[in-house]
Design goal:
It is built from eight helices and four strands. With 168 residues, it is α+β, with helices and mostly antiparallel strands.
Length: 168
């Protein structure tokens, strides 16, 4: 993701592992979008499985926002493609992406998320464009065939699998 953003925003790219704002916190990357400093965090599975990590992310986001920065959190189950680039960054460009959205190769499913991670997953999922949301839900449905529903999604997310394309 950093490489793509650096190419698309050569004059506005600020780099990776950004520190500052008078705290010990670091952000994965930063750029200027429409004149606004935007910090970007790539969130792996631990950001959904550990309640204290969810808390730390909230605090880190609050620090960035209080400094006037925009925050983009990019979940591990979403890919950077033309759709997400425009949706999250407001940039229209073509990205060669052959890996689909969703839980394709990972075995770190929502069934392993903590309660706060489940709520975060749901919020993030429904903030995405319909095509991305559908791809993620489809991947979960496919993985339930392989592993069984209870090992892929917690009961709190069963509605995602039971409706054609769940609404928030």
């Amino acid at each position: 993701m950093a490489h793509v953003l650096q190419q698309l925003l050569p004059d506005d790219w600020q780099g990776t592992q950004i520190a500052g704002m008078g705290t010990r916190h670091r952000w994965d990357m930063s750029c200027r979008l429409s004149g606004i400093v935007t910090v970007i965090e790539y969130d792996g599975d631990e950001h959904y499985r550990h309640s204290i990590k969810v808390r730390a992310d909230r605090m880190k986001d609050a620090i960035a926002r209080s400094s006037g920065f925009r925050v983009i959190r990019f979940p591990y189950w979403v890919q950077l493609d033309d759709i997400t680039l425009e949706h999250l960054f407001g940039i229209t460009a073509h990205i060669d992406q052959s890996f689909p959205h969703g839980f394709i190769t990972t075995k770190l499913f929502p069934a392993s998320f903590c309660e706060l991670g489940i709520a975060r997953f749901r919020t993030e999922l429904f903030s995405l464009p319909c095509a991305v949301r559908l791809a993620v839900v489809t991947s979960l449905r496919e993985r339930t065939t392989e592993y069984g529903r209870e090992f892929v999604v917690p009961s709190a997310l069963n509605d995602l699998l039971d409706s054609p394309l769940a609404n928030p």
